[in-house]
Amino acid sequence: MSKLNTEYLQRCIDTLEKSYEMIQKAEEGSIDYELYRNALVKGFEMTLEQSGKLLRKNITPFFASKKATDLLSFKDVFRHAHKHSLLTEEETNRWLKYRDNRNNTAHDYGQAFEEETLSLIDDFLTDVKNLKKVIDND
Fold first, then answer.
1. How far is CA 9 from each of CA 12, 32, 33, rounded to the nearest angstrom?
2. Domain-embedded: residue 53
3. For residues 6 and 29, what is the distance between their CA atoms, to the nearest angstrom?
4. Domain range enclosing 58
5. How many domains does the chain have?
6. What is the pTM of this model?
7. What is the pLDDT of residues 18-61, one digit of tens each?
8. CB neighbours (10 Å) of residue 1?
9. 31-59 and 111-137 helices cross at what angle (nearest 10)?
């Protein structure tokens, strides 16, 4: 299997980190804060989706066909990654939590939701960087 291209994932990580850095400098309640918070939420969503897509491709060799992995739900992709020792149980549980948060995005764009997403960013950045290493090493 050829090595997966993770350049776009790295770009998503870099953008998310920059948004996180900028929101920490902005005054809470200011337009800048809201702008960076919005960018952070969108960056989180994009990075999460890209992570799932790449991990799905990464676990394909463990299945009889590509079609079999195409049928997996997002969460099942991460469960299978854990099953094949690509992720720890703790990492997998956090990824499932990130997905739950992302699914809430589609239904609730309120400030409370955005602040909840913000509270996940430290762990998420660590986990997505570790996931990128796993994908790059295969």
1. 5, 25, 25
2. yes
3. 35
4. 7-133
5. 1
6. 0.90
7. 999 999 999 999 999 999 988 998 999 999 999 999 999 999 99
8. 8
9. 40
